[in-house]
Fold these 2 entries.
Entry 1:
Amino acid sequence: MRIVARPLTLRSIRRKTPPGFGRRGREWTLALVTASLLAVLIAVMRPGADAPSSVVLQAAPADYAANDYPADPARPGAPHADSLDRWGFFTGECTSFVAWRIRQHLGVPDFTNGYHGGLFGYAWHWADNADVLGLPVDATPTPGSVAVFPPNTAGAGPLGHVAVVLSVSPAGTALVEDYNWRDAWDNYQEHAYSQHTVPTAQLQFIHFRPPSPSTPRPSVKPLTMTPKTTAPVKRPAPAAQQQPRPHVFHVYAPAGLSERAAPTLSAPIRARLAAHTAVTVTCQTTGDRVFGTGDSSTVWDRLADGGYATDYWIDTPTIDGFSPGIPRC
């Protein structure tokens, strides 16, 4: 026997009212239905431990949370997996992807493996290195923070794992994006993009994103005018002109980099610069195009000693373009 469920409507309530129940009985029925619906809504919306785990407390900015990583091995023209990238990590690995996200969307365009003289290295070492450099590291996930997985924890392998937090749930979990996680999202493929939910209890979080412009500033005490006197007033000596900040970067060519007498590949070599050597860039110009792992650049950097080196293998913020803040030669 087939039973067809009909929706509950005011008309059906009237039709199902027993004979002699009367108008007041129908009013009580309506009140009972309304109270039941309100009870269900309150139970669903009540905050606390009973809140559904899918409720998101903090949402990620809309400018990322997509696979825009240029070194994705599946992308046409991209380098092979585990090639050295321009910021000192290996392509297709979680560290390379997170470094890309930090440079492009988390407010640190000059981030590299050797950022501020540190060494981020393997994923498990990121939190310790960030802490030494004075970056905020804690156990509180926020959208845009970098989640650091200790080795063999929460699904990570023996070298640990890093990921970018997209959103945070009250159930003690976070939605993250990363590379090389190998789950259903990426069809269990190596060196592929993924989004997944992880428990946060045993993780650490590095907060690279600068404070929001809406952060309240400390109040400033209003200026008060001093009474005018006839005594001569000593004027302070003019402050010395502030020297421009040196543009110090690092060489990331695996086999080192040639410093040349001019921005061309045929110019005489003045010196050889080893990988990770710190160099001071005084200005930028264009010259011969230099090809690397998947892309290329015509920008050359003039160094403090007057020589030139291709910008492709120096970790300036921009690839194949002039970097902001560095003057043109």
Note: Residues 22-45 form the longest helix (24 residues).
Entry 2:
Amino acid sequence: MSEPRTNDDDQLARHQLGSRDRGRLADDTRRAIIALVRGPYLSAARQPELWRALLRDRAAIELHLGNMFLEMVVDLERQLAFVHNAELEVETPRVVRQLRLGLLDTALLLDLRQRLLHDVDVSGRVFVDRAELEEALAAYRPQASTNLAGFARAVTAAIEKMRKAAVVLLTSQPERFEISPVLAVAFDADELAAVARDLAELRDRGDDGLDLSAEPDEADENDDTDETDETDEELQG
């Protein structure tokens, strides 16, 4: 006599993608989870099908991510979502890699977020030219340094790091970027105020923390090292 079917059996049969597939979630829901974990975020504008899956199966996705020590943040107004490492009462694995930010990276991040909150056009989107970013970061060039080429490389590396993290998005114009709306929700006001204070203190005392002799690729290779002039931000890189 065969055993009665259970709800779990029915769910497996409904979403099974092959004879060896043991998944209980729909195909698009699984892909939404993968997109969230890969990061840096999932948005309705860029991934409409996965966004619809997220809204439909939000509870199941949050349960799955919770089993991976991850928490999901969903902003319905901006139609985007991202995950970060769960902060629990016990020590847990760090599943998503934090983006390590040096002085220029942090300054650029703060400048971009300020523009995002204050420079919105009629379309609700915010664009910025490379020249504007270079001008904003010029205040952080070491006063005693004459290595203009080295500073220019450092600025280019900071912009490239934001591009790789999808904080700025490419447009049809090579020297123009769109600022991602994720910056409006990735950090709260208290976190940003603390970072801004630390940044101001470093600049005021001339502690720039910049190695202008390093090539941008060298800096990227050291992203996982522990250095005092860098900060960890919960933004996936």
Note: Residues 144 and 206 are 9 Å apart (CA to CA).
